[in-house]
Amino acid sequence: MQIFGRTFRRQVQPRSKWVVALIVFAVTCYVIYLTALALNLGTFLWGAYRRLPLLQRQGAGHVMALALGVVWFSTACVRWRHRLYLAPPMRDLVTTPASPWQILRIATRMQILSLGSVYTLAFVLFLYPWFSVEWLLLLVDLPWENLGVWQIVLGGICSIVSTALLMVMIDSLALSANLLAASLGVGGVAPHYAFMNYVWAFVRRPVLYATLIAVGLMLFDLLVANLPVPVPALASAPLVQLGHTLLEALNVPGSTPNVILTRFPSVCWFDAITSSVRGSSVDFQAAILTCLAWLGGSAALNCLCLNRALSVSVRSGWLGVGAVRPADATKSKPRSFDPDAINGPLEGLLIRRIGRMGRATLRLVSRNAQAGAVDIHLQRTLLLCIPAVLIGWLANRLVPNLLETFLNIFERSANVLELRTAGQLASAATLFIVAMIKIHVWGMLSFRNLVPPNTTQSRDIFTQIFQQQGLIQRVQVTRGDNRYPLIEIYAIGFKDAVLLPVYYAMFWLLIVVATTALEALLLGLPADLVGWSALGSYTVLLQILFVLSLSYVQMYAMLDYRRSRLLTAVQFLVSLSFIGLLLASVIGLIGYLWSESIPQNRFAIAALGTVNILVIVNSVIYSLARWMYVRRRFDCEINSGRRMY
Amino acid sequence: MPEPRNGDQPGNAIDLYEVSKSFEGGKVALSSTSLTVKRGEVLALVGPNGAGKSTLLKCMAGLLRPQSGSIVVNGLDRFRDHLAIRTFTTYLPDQPNLFLHFRGVEHLQLIGDLYGVEKTERDRRIKSFAGLFDLEEILDRPISNYSNGQYKKLALAATFLTNARIYLLDEPETGGIDPPASSSLAQIIQALRDRHDVTVVWATQVLDLAQKLCDRFAIVDDGRIIVCGTLDELREKAKEPGASLDRIFAVLTGKAKDQLVSDVLQSMARSAEEAPRRIQNRV
């Protein structure tokens, strides 16, 4: 009997032994890299911790442990909510007679071969240098032989045990928090009190970020206090003083902040590990008992809330809030422009120059906004830049010494290295990068919120690639999950996909760089420095965007037409190495040109020479990328009859 | 409106009374829909895409709660007595979600345990269904390594492993399963039809198969059940004596689009002639 049904194309192919070998090799390299990184980081940080004066050692450690605990607890809460309630297979279990206990068992089932396990291993290795040195210090007093073996074994066991203690404690508390919230009607798939969603959305991030900022200020204060060279300007800055005040408040024994700090789970754990081998037994006992109390408390809370928190009404989306909506139920986003019309003078210019198919490529650059709205995207960027400039100006008024201190540090470093011009440029470039990050992050957050979460297109090329490789899980928000890459829907020519984004970026960057330069002037930088930096950063950023556009096109071609992953990986590495070498040569060449021309005040030669070099190199890269693109396209067309269907 | 009764009393398997469900954004998926599913029958839910079949099944399965109306399953209220109902109903979604880090056999064991199937019986059933759906060789692999078809076949095996008396199947024949598995599925539905204590509600787009296997048919369109009855009753309503379900469906839903199909085909042919030139220009 032949039954015809819907079939979904899925780009999963049986892995050849070469691909498996490549994956094993890559994973091995990654694990070795992570091992070396974790061990070295552990050695460095624990060494630095030991070198701190005794009085400041505990404070710094506590603040670090608090930062670690806050971040881990926050992520663990989100992870457990997903595991218990929001994961699609969990939600499908609503239709089965699964008991709360069975649900909990399924949710707590560990994945041994996962990225989380690798990070746990890395954390064990990070802790290892602490215990290994502690045991060494203890063992040298004893007449034992083979100290090295004992040191390795005992250090390893201690770091494994202490990692397990921290993980279990944080996870158990996060689980308890979820179960408690669900049983109170403010958690689960669809919270009973729907307004809590809004309250939580408003409260969660400010609280987390405020805590992290406070921790960061305290750590910065500790860093400033322990610098080998005194920096009075930095130490007297109001923000650093704020960190100092917070730190002092936390360190008053018996005060409420101090009690909260020392009883915080990760801080107790830190006290336990630092006093476990060569520390006060009273401290160790107190710390470990607090850890056990947290564990006991969370276990009791779990038992208390289990039945209610994992009941069907909490796990189902019966209130309608958490129901998976069909794709056609998604509210269409009101468009602020007509996608088939010309929405402004710049867009008109681009469309006339490139052609109407160029609209789709705008998604590649301004994918947070909708395709085709160049002028509107630019207008929004401008609207976001103006408050950014004002905030920068306000920050300068509030913290006047901070900028001067930063600049002084750069100037001093430059003087030491006898690179005065480079030092000035570096300081200006740093400010520009900070401003860019600020604008980009702000813009990204604002634009992302404009896009409805149920869009059927995956917006990010990296997300698409990672999803296909199984590195991240596909988020199933609608049943209309689109499995086709963008290029299949919008056939994009090579010229459109590269040149149009670059032309577009020329306008966009002009606004961004101009407002950043304005901000830099308001911050008090010298006008000539700002001018040169703005010109330099404009050229560099444009160059980066040009290379990125090329890379995007190449990656889309890989995504669409990839057949042999091994071959593609090799081609990718070869082209990457070639482009890397080319860019390194260009940077070297431009650097030489500048070093020969700028000190003699021949700026025009420097600028014209740079443009000349860039034009030649860009033509080479463009031709190379186009050749690869066309080859792949024709390969696809040749092989399509045999392999695509 | 039928009153909920004790689950053991004889009566209809499922009663839907004036069920309405709409989603955020204004989409009305079900609009005052009433339906009766008799005990021991195989009922086919057929209708165009987006008609509301899946939403109807999800409401029956207890995944979605309608805004108004009532659903009574075996005499029990769907949302008040959900704990009791879940022990004898099973639901296969259109796109099942399985635990990707489980091995196939672990998933089947888990489902068997959830439905209280005795261990030796569970293992026996796993073996039989693995044979039936050609899954023996892959049961020990993680589900994340399964192909689309294997994934769907595992979900099918898990559905029929249970001790359920009411099966809610949302397009089980789709999702890339191979012809032997489709044949096995048809045989299973045939076998369930022969058991008078088992009820199957089957949302499907494969009308010729539905015509062979189902006792009654409910045609859903635009959130409403426009007609429900046996094939003869449907023929009578459509005034098409001796017509196939396919034809009746087209007549009753107004989806007979022969002229439209020929227009689209002509347009595609014209476009195909021009495409190579356009692509050449772009590259």
Q: Can you put this structure into words, describing what you see?
A:
The complex is a heterodimer of chains A (645) and B (283). Chain A is mostly helical and 645 residues long. Helices cover 75% and strands 0% of the residues of chain A. Chain A has 24 helices and no strands. Chain A has helices at residues 17-51, 54-86, 88-92, 100-107, 115-139, 147-183, 195-225, 232-235, 238-250, 256-263, 265-274, 281-309, 312-315, 345-354, 358-365, 374-398, 400-416, 420-450, 461-469, 486-489, 494-522, 527-561, 565-597, 603-644. In chain A, helix 6 packs antiparallel against helix 11 (265-274). Chain A is globular, with a radius of gyration of 29 Å. Chain A starts with 16 loop residues before the first helix and ends with a helix. Chain B has helices at 53-61, 82-86, 104-114, 119-132, 148-160, 179-194, 207-213, 231-238, 245-253, 258-282, and strands spanning 14-22, 28-37, 42-46, 68-73, 76-77, 89-92, 166-170, 199-203, 216-221, 224-229. In chain B, the strands form 2 sheets. In chain B, strands 6-7-8-3-9-10 form a 6-stranded mixed β-sheet, sandwiched between helices. In chain B, strand 4 and strand 5 form a beta hairpin. In chain B, helix 3 runs parallel beside helix 5 (148-160). With 283 residues, chain B is an alpha/beta fold. The model of chain B is unreliable at 1-9 (pLDDT under 50). Chains A and B meet through helix 3 and helix 21 of A and helix 1, helix 2, strand 6, helix 3 and helix 6 of B.
